[in-house]
């Protein structure tokens, strides 16, 4: 008996029906799922699902209300003569999850059926935000309720929706209307709201008063008494019906809907593609997870639904801009002053003269002035110290301008200010004294120029000398253009290695193993071999070759000993050089030991590749991704210096 009960319980679900279990009946389709994801690909797909022409002018009607109040049933009987266009079900679980759409060809209406409020569903915050996005693209909004008396929840929902619509959605819809070239802005007036109440035992609102329109006045008075505004809506009307014995009389609701659809004085019909573009724009702008611990519970539509979720790392104040504002290159902004944190170093210096003149010009301590060349600037730095240079006023301070009595800059020429710190943005860097790195860059430039000038002849002589002392079975360097193992083409300055067993040319990665090759005359000492020969383990029938070749290998052995000695000396010099580079590295540069791949192309670094630093962002990049130069005054580099491709393509000043 218990097994039968458990089996029956498994077949019963009290949760909402999953999208995979819902079936489109041909007239309605899922437009937006419960995760706020559009289920139509583009405008043509939207038109195909609706079954209307692209040139047809349409309006949008949506319905809201609590779960179980019969929203889908109302739409079916008011607009589709009782046909079950939108699914209804006697099941205790919600039969409408997300937003479903259908087209009414008689009234040229796009009808949107929404998920009921107060249902047992997860992600309530995202579902509420979805309801407001639907309301924003609607021309007519029906709020369906079966409450015997109008609850405060309805007034608070509509009042909060009106406030959020004006604050967050109006700018987006205004921008969309300008992009679409509409004569009448979509956001000039919000949708018309119809409150449809069905009672069975209670009198309707204004039923005891014979004055026409008194119900609408009483409804507005309730909004005013609860301190709720309806300024975003073009009209708010009340429609009531008392159903003592079914069926429900929807005639008065249909009459009001017809009036709203035919009224073009406030909102004119528009093409379906514009409706889709509006919904897509709002979906792209207001999306993403909503943290429950930062949501105000006193409002149906708190600002956290629609504002940027980023918070200042120093003072924990939330950004007040809209969601995804960084796509429009709009920086983070927060109200109030921030607090200084040593780990973020979020204090900047502002030129006091410009500040008093109504401008805010940030100055940074740096090694040289923009008017000095690199070597003269370093000489001045050694004598007079760092400088503060304003873009408008020029040089306003030198740290060692006088022999004695040099004042602190904050006491006279600059004004300190603490700024907010945001995740993912450039860290504050008030010290741009990069004299040591400038010296290294200058020396590297000289060394690189000499090396590049002599690289061609040196490589040619080295290859010729190597071929002269190579064993007969080695393939000459002049005939090797690619690795015999991985088939990768050798770069111009890349070193070619020979396998001591087969004599073919390989790259460093394909010839890392070593083993004795006595059959080739190399004796019992392990020597470099390729991966394939290492796996084979060597040949067994080469006694004749082993007895004749050792004399020929003497020259090659001498060459390898000399080359190994030079490599050891070069490595010994590299270690202190790397130490000096690490000390001279500016603070915002990523240390070399933390760089494993190029920040731009994500190509892993190998020992033969040089790691370069972008002077703007400080990330490690390869040579191919950092071939461009630009001045980076914000980091103290007033002359063109190496930058990565990402920073080089930025249109703003670095």
UniProtKB/TrEMBL annotation:
Q: Which UniProt keywords apply?
A: Metal-binding, Zinc, Zinc-finger
GO terms, biological process: lipid droplet formation
Per UniProt, residues of the FYVE-type domain are 477-538, 592-652
What SMART domains is this protein classified in? FYVE
Q: Which InterPro entries match?
A: P-loop_NTPase, ZFYV1, Znf_FYVE, Znf_FYVE-rel, Znf_FYVE_PHD, Znf_RING/FYVE/PHD
What's an example of a GO molecular-function annotation for this chain? zinc ion binding
One GO location term (cellular component): lipid droplet
The record's listing under CDD domains reads:
FYVE_ZFYV1 (cd15734)
Q: Report the superkingdom from the record.
A: Eukaryota
Recorded protein name is: FYVE-type domain-containing protein
| Species per Swiss-Prot/TrEMBL record | Phoxinus phoxinus
């Amino acid at each position: 008996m218990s097994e039968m009960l458990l089996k029956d319980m498994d077949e019963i679900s009290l949760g909402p029906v999953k999208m995979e279990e819902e079936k489109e009946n041909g007239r309605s389709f899922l437009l937006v799922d419960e995760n706020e994801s559009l289920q139509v690909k583009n405008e043509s797909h939207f038109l195909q699902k609706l079954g209307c022409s692209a040139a047809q002018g349409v309006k949008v009607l949506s319905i809201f209300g609590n779960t179980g109040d019969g929203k889908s049933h109302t739409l079916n009987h008011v607009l589709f003569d009782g046909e079950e266009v939108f699914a209804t079900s006697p099941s205790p679980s919600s039969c409408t999850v997300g937003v479903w759409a259908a087209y009414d060809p008689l009234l040229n209406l796009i009808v949107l059926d929404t998920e009921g409020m107060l249902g047992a569903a997860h992600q309530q915050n995202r579902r509420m935000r979805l309801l407001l996005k639907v309301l924003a693209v609607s021309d007519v909004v029906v709020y369906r309720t079966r409450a015997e008396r109008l609850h405060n929840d309805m007034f608070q929902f509509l009042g909060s929706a009106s406030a959020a619509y004006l604050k967050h959605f109006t700018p987006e819809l205004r921008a969309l209307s300008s992009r679409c070239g509409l004569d009448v802005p979509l956001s000039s007036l919000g949708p018309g709201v119809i409150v449809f109440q069905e009672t069975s035992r209670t009198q309707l609102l204004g039923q005891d008063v014979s004055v026409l329109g008194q119900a609408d006045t009483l409804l507005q008075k309730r909004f005013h008494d609860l301190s709720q505004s309806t300024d975003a809506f073009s009209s708010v009307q009340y429609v009531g019906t008392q159903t003592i014995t079914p069926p429900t009389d929807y005639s008065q609701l249909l009459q009001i809907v017809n009036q709203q659809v035919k009224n073009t004085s406030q909102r004119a019909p528009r093409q379906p593609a514009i409706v889709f573009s509006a919904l897509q724009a709002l979906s792209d702008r207001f999306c993403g997870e909503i943290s429950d611990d930062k949501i105000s519970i006193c409002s149906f539509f708190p600002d956290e639904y629609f504002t940027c979720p980023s918070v200042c790392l120093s003072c924990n104040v939330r950004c007040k801009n809209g969601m995804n504002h960084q796509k429009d290159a709009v920086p983070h902004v927060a109200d109030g002053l921030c607090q200084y944190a040593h780990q973020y170093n979020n204090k900047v210096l502002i030129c006091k003269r410009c500040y008093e003149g109504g401008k805010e010009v940030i100055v940074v301590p740096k090694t040289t002035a923009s008017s000095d060349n690199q070597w003269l600037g370093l000489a001045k730095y050694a004598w007079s110290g760092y400088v503060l240079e304003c873009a408008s006023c020029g040089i306003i301070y030198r740290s060692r301008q006088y022999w004695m009595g040099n004042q602190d800059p904050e006491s006279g020429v600059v004004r300190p200010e603490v700024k907010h710190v945001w995740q993912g943005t450039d860290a504050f860097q008030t010290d741009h004294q990069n004299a040591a790195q400038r010296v290294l860059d200058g020396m590297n430039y000289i060394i690189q120029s000499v090396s590049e000038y002599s690289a061609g002849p040196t490589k040619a002589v080295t290859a010729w000398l190597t071929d002269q002392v190579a064993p007969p079975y080695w393939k000459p360097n002049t005939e090797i253009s690619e690795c015999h193992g991985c088939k990768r083409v050798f770069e111009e300055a890349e070193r070619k290695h020979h396998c001591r067993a087969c004599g073919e040319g390989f790259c460093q990665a394909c010839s890392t193993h070593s083993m004795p090759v006595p059959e080739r005359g190399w004796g019992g000492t392990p020597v470099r071999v390729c991966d394939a020969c290492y796996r084979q383990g060597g040949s067994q029938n080469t006694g004749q070759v082993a007895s004749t070749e050792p004399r020929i290998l003497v020259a090659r052995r001498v060459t390898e000993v000399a080359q190994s000695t030079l490599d050891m000396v070069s490595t010994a010099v590299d270690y202190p050089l790397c130490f000096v580079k690490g000390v001279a590295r500016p603070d915002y540069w990523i240390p070399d030991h933390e760089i494993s791949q190029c920040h731009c192309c994500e190509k892993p670094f190998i020992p033969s590749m040089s790691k370069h630093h972008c002077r703007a962002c400080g990330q490690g990049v390869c040579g191919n991704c950092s071939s461009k130069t630009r001045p980076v005054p914000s980091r103290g580099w007033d002359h063109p210096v190496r930058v990565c491709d990402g920073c080089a393509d930025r249109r703003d000043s670095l």
